[in-house]
Design brief:
With 261 residues, the chain is mainly alpha-helical. The termini are far apart. Helix content is 56%, strand content 5%. It has 2 domains: 155 residues, no CATH class; 93 residues. The model has no long low-confidence stretch (mean pLDDT 91). The chain contains 16 helices and 2 strands. Helix 4 crosses helix 9 and helix 12 packs across helix 15. A two-stranded antiparallel ribbon has the order 1-2.
Length: 261
């Protein structure tokens, strides 16, 4: 097993403050950080070791490979503590060195270069970790892989990554759940994913209708969090709330008078 290497904080800060200056470097096929820093000022070895080598699959033909890569990545780094997994030094190095080619294909900056201000914001959110908050971690291209698997991992299941597969099955599901505050509460997240799994015929068969149903369920649960502390709900209570709302949604879809309202 090999030890994980992270960037030093001074380099992370320097790179982040120089995004605009270095913007064109994010179009290169090869990592360039060694050109702007010396090894002694750049890297710091940790005591954390990889459980297994990490070989990520590159996106191809519209398949982003998020599910496969999140599971593979999490397995290799399953011994990370939540504190270690919030360290910007770890994810910044992985984004700029260890998995640069993956990042270039999965999160290409060239798509945003027509508007350099937008490109700077894109690089900052996908190649760095603006804050140690979960939302920022879920934006970084590498931290996102670990955290989506970590938040949905369930050791009690025959396949502990079954819910991870649901979470990453479409970008819409990922965004609807994780872009809202409720996605950071484990019982809420797993309750939502379990509900989607149990109602797969109604919610996971694709199409605009199902996407709208999931969006409305997410909005309903998020709004419920405005009058109650979602963290205090059990997984079964979360599912009961969603079941009631789904019944109402399906009823409105079949009732012209309710649709008009």
């Amino acid at each position: 097993m090999s030890a994980i290497v992270i960037f030093k904080s001074s380099l992370v800060n320097a790179l982040r403050s120089s995004i605009r200056v270095n913007l064109d470097k994010y179009l290169r096929d090869e990592s360039w950080v060694a050109e702007v820093s010396t090894l002694s000022a750049r890297d710091m070895q940790t005591a954390v070791e990889l459980a297994e080598p990490i070989l990520l699959e590159f996106p191809e033909n519209g398949n982003l490979k998020d599910t496969e890569n999140a599971i593979r990545f999490h397995k290799a780094l399953r011994h990370l503590t939540p504190l270690q997994a919030r360290d910007p030094r770890l994810w910044t190095r992985m984004s700029h060195v260890d998995f640069w080619q993956y990042m270039r294909l999965r999160w290409p900056a060239n798509k945003h270069m027509k508007n350099r201000d937008k490109a700077v914001r894109f690089v900052e959110s996908r190649y760095f970790v603006a804050q140690s908050q979960t939302r920022s971690l879920l934006r970084n291209g590498m931290a996102r892989l670990w955290w989506t698997a970590q938040l949905s991992y369930d050791s009690q299941r025959e396949n502990p990554y079954e819910l991870t597969t649901i979470l990453l099955s479409t970008l819409d599901i990922t965004q609807q759940i994780l872009e809202r505050g409720m996605g950071r509460a484990e019982n809420v997240l797993k309750g939502f994913l379990e509900f989607l799994l149990r109602n797969s015929n109604t919610l996971l068969t694709g199409g605009n209708t199902n996407r709208d149903r999931i969006r409305r369920l997410a909005i309903h649960l998020n709004m419920y969090g405005g009058i109650s502390v979602l963290d205090c709900l059990s997984q079964s209570e979360v599912m009961a709330l969603l079941d009631t709302e789904l019944t109402r949604i399906l009823h409105t879809e079949t009732s012209p008078s309710l649709k008009a309202e």
